[in-house]
Amino acid sequence: MADKDLFLKNYSFYGKHCDMVKKLTQKIDEDSGASIFNTAIELFVVAALAGVKNDHKEKPSIDKTRETKILAEQFNSHSPEVQIAFKMVTLLGNSTKYDEVERLNRTFRNPKTDENYSQFEEYMLGGLEDIYNKIVLDTNKTYGDYLKSINDFIEQYKAPVKEDELVPDSNNLFD
After folding, report:
1. How far is CA 25 from the centre of its chain?
2. pLDDT tier at 174 (50, 70, 90 boundaries)?
3. Dist CA 132 CA 155 (whole Å)
């Protein structure tokens, strides 16, 4: 389980989560040379936000036979992104367990608790599984296939546009 030092030391993904990170950060095809995520730290941040948005938590894998790491230096160099993701997960996570005031206090008054870091890790791993299951499909073979899966994944996060909230055409603002 994660503790207060989560972003100060190397972080290891084990077992199935290791496999998912490797697949999401490797080249998707030789022709494009592209990968879905350039680095595991980028995936770490996005996965945490996806996990809390989907309210999906997972425990760390107990299978220690496979491992990949995010080095402590990467947390340091991506500190602003990691910290904002941590605050968002702490604020939005466990919305049925804590009321708004308690979540605000846990986020801004007393954020550095083992419980908050464990919650972050569980949402991050849940989000990792969500991303993997939506993007890495057996049918995806080419860059175009993956691009379609990525677009479909991103589409689920777009807010629905309500008819009465449509932005008027700039050419007709004063009509």
Report:
1. 14
2. very low
3. 15
pLDDT in tens, 119-146: 999 999 999 999 999 999 989 988 899 9
Scan for tokens 């996990």, then name that residue: 51
Q: Which residues does residue 69 pair with via DSSP β-bridges, in sequence order?
A: 12
DSSP states along 104-115 = HIIIIIS---HH
Predicted confidence (pLDDT) per residue in 45-83, tens digit: 999 999 999 999 999 999 999 999 999 999 999 999 999
CA dist., res. 51 & res. 86, Å (int): 12
How far is the C-alpha of 173 from the C-alpha of 175, rounded, in Å?
Answer: 6
DSSP conformational letter for 168: P
Q: Which residue has the tokens 């008054």?
A: 109
Q: Quick one: which of 122, 126, 127, 115 has its CA closest to 4?
A: 115
Q: Do residues 94 and 126 touch, judged by C-beta distance below 8 A?
A: no
Token pair listed for 92? 């939005």
Q: Kindly write down the DSSP assignment for every residue of 91-143, as one continuous string.
A: HHTTTTTS-HHHHHIIIIIS---HHHHHHHHHHHHHHHHHHHHHH--TT--SH
Q: How far apart are CA 107 and CA 113, in angstroms?
A: 10
Res 168: pLDDT: 56
